[in-house]
Amino acid sequence: MHEMSVMQSVLDAAFEALEKSGETRITEISLTIGEQTDIQEVPLNFAFEALKANTPARDARLKVEVLTTRSRCNECGEDFDHDRFSMICSICGSTDIELLQGRELSIDGMNADSEPFIVVDEASAVEPFDPYADIIAQARAEAAMNAKKANSS
Ligand SMILES: [Zn+2]
Prior knowledge:
By secondary structure, the chain is of the alpha+beta class. The protein is 34% helix and 26% strand.
């Protein structure tokens, strides 16, 4: 899947930027994608969900802006939007056109914060087991008893 390798490159760039920023967690990544790149939003989101797990981007949201295809006609000089496949001027019908927009693939921005990045094993995160809980409870009970004794004497 094309989108997997694209997303891996995006995340690699984001992790590099994160390291430079001194922050620890990525909260949002904004991408601009031209429709001529043949990158589809649904598989791209799927790749993002799969690849961000257990990384500093695990809580991040992905924002994608898709740019339509826009060309300039060298015959009549007009700029026009068109679909991915039609390569003729919508005004004069010339095939002598030049692509202006639609091949973009860029990271527009990234938000990060300094929340500690902790890998949580979902299965064991139910009830933390505290081996000292009983000892602490006993110590508290003893302290309470001692306090009572001190008050009554
Ligand atoms: Zn034209």
